[in-house]
Amino acid sequence: MTDRDDENVTRILAPQSTAQRVSRRLFIQGGAVALFSGSVLLAACSSDSDANPSAGGAPTGSTGSGEVEGQLNFYHWAEYDDPKIFKQFTDEFGATTKIDIYASNEEMIAKLNAAQGTAGYDIVVPSGQYIPQMVQLGLLSELDLAKIPNFKNLETQYTNQPWDPNNLHSVCKDWGSTGWIYDTEAIDGEINTWSDFIEAAKGPASGSLSVLDAPADLCGIYFWANGIDWTTEDQADLDACQEFIVNELAPHIKAFDSYPGIALTQGNYALSQVWNGDARQGLIAVQDKDPERYKWGLGAPKTELWMDNWCILAEAENINAAYAWINFILQPEVSLKDLEFHGYNTGIKGVQEQAEAADLPYLDLIFFDEAQVATFEPGAVNSATEKLVSIWDQAKAEAGT
Amino acid sequence: MKAPRFTLAIPAWILFTLFFLIPVGFIAFYSFGYKPFFLTGLTIATDKLSFSNYGDALSGTFLETFKGTLQISILGTFICLLIGFPFAYWLAVRVSPKWRGLLLGLVIVPFWTNFLVRTIGWRILLAPEGPVSGILRAIGIRDAPLAVLDTRFAVQLGVVYNYLPLMILPLFVALDRLEPALREASKDLGASRWKTMRQVTIPLAMPGIVAGTLLVFIPLSGDYITAAVLGGAKGNMVGRMVADQFLVAQNWALGSAMAMVLIGMILLTVGLFALIGLAARAVIQRNRRVTLQEVPA
Description:
Radius of gyration of chain A: 20 Å
Mean pLDDT of chain B: 90
CATH class of the domain at 73-241 in chain B: Mainly Alpha
Largest interface: A-B, 58 and 49 residues
Helix content of chain B: over 70%
Distance between the termini of chain A: 35 Å
Oligomer: heterodimer
Structural class of chain B: mainly alpha
Shape of chain A: globular
Low-confidence stretches of chain A: 1-65
CATH topology of the domain at 73-241 in chain B: MetI-like fold
Largest sheet of chain A: 6 strands, mixed
Number of helices of chain A: 15
Low-confidence stretches of chain B: none
Mean pLDDT of chain A: 84
Largest sheet of chain B: none
CATH architecture of the domain at 73-241 in chain B: Orthogonal Bundle
Order of helices and strands of chain B: HHHHHHHHHHHH
Number of helices of chain B: 12
Strand content of chain B: under 5%
Helix content of chain A: 25-40%
């Protein structure tokens, strides 16, 4: 998604392979900066905004929408869809796409809320537990599922979720979990649990540790390691979490980075808390050079279950294009192509069999067995959310000292 | 009929009032408010006013970031001056006018590139698996990968690089306007090169030094792109902390208080250095006063 412009700039500074990975990740970080400072980077962050709509190209998607015009504006997570898919969408439907990125749900809601309907986005991809709040804040529009015929392609276990009954506001994009990735050259022992993670963070990985730049995930490290429900609202638990994260863990943190996987080629961190798809993208990037060096582990004994969802914003201007996009990406072949890129289970019927048949790399980072899924806990937005944000805030200040 | 004299300044006054005074006034006001519960849909509440945000902004952890920022900006400005002055002097005095334009152009060239892209360039160079690390290891200076990224040192390096031209340009202008005849006169009167530099060139270049120092120090203190790209968790700066409060934690009240403290910190530092400078000048002038004695008849 952050192709073209930045590639050209960085190509002269680093080998092409490095440049691609490096530049993407940096523009992700920079993206947040750019948004605030007058969107200097919009051009670089946009995807295919220079691609011409294919004039007269007959739409081949299985949708009745036909051609849609204009530009479809995403407010999105980074590296979350194959750039080729955006291109394909533009070729088939005519609408161009542009993407701005965020690093956490809190950040996304904060910015949308502060803009009060003037941010200019059509599509947003919140994690499920944040949807009720976004609805309450009036940020999301109601979906007309009749305009998304491919909705039927989703496995029913991923529809009609408790936080959005009857998919009134959202459609599953994909789901995943959280674990770690570590450099075996820097860390000797195996990391099998969050307690091992913490031990390594305080020991060999101290000073080269990255954690997710998201409050609940950061605090999750403490809760999961100690067998506490990470959606707890108990004040004593929260205080203990604060004490641990701010005073014990933060001094060892090198960076708050939601995308350490795609930065793996830079060798910045010895240990990173990471989402599974991002870890997979990183492992693929380094597999030619150092296939054995980095190891992935799924959080244990408990870890996160999250589901990200396509939503149309209440302020959306290009509603037809937004529906066309959601319907487009729910096609099994498009979904598979996207999964191959981002490495998260898209929940489309038969996608796992197809991925296995296609022999995609690192399938164990995409599809989890039943025993693993049993350890996954969905998150929640509740009375503790404010406290988690404040812990994360203090951890950031503390890590800098 | 003649227009009043201030007519010409009206557009600038309007711009300053609308886009500087009023917003800063709001920020100052918000800094006494508090953060409402985020489901209310409000970004700031001001029905109860208090100083508590200032207490938070100046409490332990955040205070450390203020100290770190002050250190980065003072040191950064000083390094810029140390590198910039000899270069500007060389450019203004030693280089033939034929090449001067070209070299001056080269100083400005980095400005043709986006600030962010320039900073990211350092990230690529300094990566543990990057080219600098590779070279240092190949020639045996280091045996471990370079561990510079995401530290305060990286931010220090980045700000010096990013702000150096802002130091060189005013210094060059000041030194360029300096009459060569003054230096020659100093030499003719028996002063050594070092004495000429100390007693003629530097005092006359002082307006350039002050301008360059302010131009570097003030924006550098509020910079957050460099810290965001190169600093990681360790190289945090106040600018980034303020941005985080507004954009991520969505605590506009605390962010506003931090912004006000930052403004205060910059004003205090500039004021303090101005006082030191004035005092130093007074002392020097007293010691160097030339008393003309009446020639005995």
